[in-house]
Amino acid sequence: MKLKRQVSANLGRTQHRDADKHYATMRRNGKEFKYCPFYGGKKYSHLSPGLHNKLNPKFPNPRVPIEEFDFAKKSREWDLQAYCRTCYKQYRRARIKLARKRWAKMSDEQIRAYYRKNIPGANMRCSVCKRNLDPKYFPISRSMEKGLHNECMDCVSSKAASVREQAWLSDGDWSSWREKVIAMRKEPLVDCAGWPPTVAESLCLEEMNGKRMHADHKVPLRAGGINDAMNFQPLCKVCNLMKSDQLDTRLTRAQIRTLVGRQFRSEIRAGESISTTERRLKAALSEHIENLETAGEYLNAIKAKKKRTNGQWDPQHAYRKGVAWLRRGTILKD
Question: Residue 315 — left, alpha, or beta (φ > 0 → left; ψ -120 to 50 → alpha)?
């Protein structure tokens, strides 16, 4: 089987919005340098002890600046990763190469059968929702040691940030949105918030299993809406299809003002209809992104957004999608 997935240039990196603050605190406490103990061990015998000095000759052991280390969450606290950035990439590449060699020729069901046969306990624990589930509920990942993703399908679909949040530089507390969606996915039944035209025609499904309910933005991202729990509402698939990227007509102007990014609040004017407000907001978002691109600052703005949101996505990908959207002039659905 030919594996198409490429190793990301950002592999192994853990960004943290308060990285500079953490580094400064460590330096004040006398922790300016850290030893990088990178070696392959028995599992990766081609990686020899003392390899760090060959990979990172600019910062040889033992005085490797702490800024060369990214962060990892340890016992609910953020601390430096064991290996420096350069070595951690090599470590991750070695793990991925070994995993791909093992799983490449196996089908999805063979991988799950292997897990059930050889892994104690058979059920796998999701790292997000903490449920113990059968391997069939986990996506296949041939780049991971177990051949399975460590997050169940529900959590993977819930937490994934779409390119709209990234390319459109949405404001808000992104983590609160994710938590809200994950909580909805766990519920056996969720009431649909309803979309007036759909409800009027008795097409609304009224309630659905949380795994099937759609997570909708009251003020769509396409209209400058924030990616925040405040802007969340559950909609059944029929209501969400009918609503598309329209502004929720039940919102007051004051409510809309709290659910859009700061730079768009001036577009909400007294006496204008909801449809006019929606057109203004969408035009303002397009103008904002276009101005950034014209000034050559669009990619930098996406990188800054990634840092503020602790994002684990590729800024270059979001940038390409955003530029393509501008060129097409296409209104993507929310």
Answer: alpha
Q: Report which of 209, 203, 177, 212 is spatially closest to residue 190, judged by C-alpha positions.
A: 209
Radius of gyration of the chain (CA): 23
Residue 319: other Cβ atoms inside 10 A: 19
Residue-range domain boundaries for the chain? 1-99, 106-159, 165-328
What's the pLDDT at 124? 80
Q: What is the mean pLDDT of the chain?
A: 83
Whether residue 188 is preceded by a cis peptide bond, meaning omega within 30 degrees of 0, is no
Three-class DSSP category at 197: helix
The token pair at 235 is 């909609």
State how far the Cα of 297 lies from the Cα of 116, in Å rounded to an integer.
Answer: 50
Taking the C-alpha atoms of residue 49 and residue 39, their distance in angstroms, rounded to an integer, is 5
The CATH class, in words, for 106-159 is alpha beta
**Contact indicator for 122, 134 with CB cutoff of 8 Å:** yes
For 163, 220, 322, the CA distances from 332, given in Å and listed in that order, are 11, 10, 11
The pLDDT-based confidence of 330 (bands split at 50, 70, 90) is very low
pLDDT of residue 9: 42
pTM of the model: 0.59
Cα separations in angstroms, 134 against 30, 112, 152, 181, 311 = 47, 9, 10, 22, 29
**In this structure, are residues 312 and 223 in contact, taking their beta carbons and an 8 Å threshold?**
no
Residue 38 has pLDDT above 50, yes or no: yes
Does position 12 have pLDDT exceeding 70, yes or no?
Answer: no
